[in-house]
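Sulfurtransferase: structure tokens wanted.
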Amino acid sequence: MQHSPGFVALVESIRPLVTEVTHDELNAIASVLLIDVREDHEWAQGRLPNAVHLGRGIIERDIERLYPDTEQTIVLYCGGGHRSVMAAHHLNKMGYSQVKSLVGGYKGAVAAGLNVVTE
Ligand SMILES: O=S(=O)([O-])[S-]
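Answer:
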């Protein structure tokens, strides 16, 4: 999907404030909470192994109740690495100090031939 210029500009203005990790870096993290922030229908079509689903629409509302450890390493991913930057920035502002965004997101994993779960 081609993103609109205003959305891309917004994401790019926030990206420098967020730590990003590659798929290789993600795999090297010993203990990580991997959160898929995409929409329900995207999650249903396929996801990364060991991910949990907490969509962009509810993640700020529900994260403290579900995952209260603000020191836990958390990696967020979306479809292509834009929405997860936004969500990571918000979680940082909520006190989650070890939140990262996955470069390339789910589409990047598929393009790289990495394992995904589709059932
Ligand atoms: O396309 S996106 O998931 O990076 S917003």
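Residues 61 and 95 are 14 Å apart (CA to CA). The pocket of thiosulfate is lined by residues 1, 78-83, 105 (CB under 6 Å).

Cheers.
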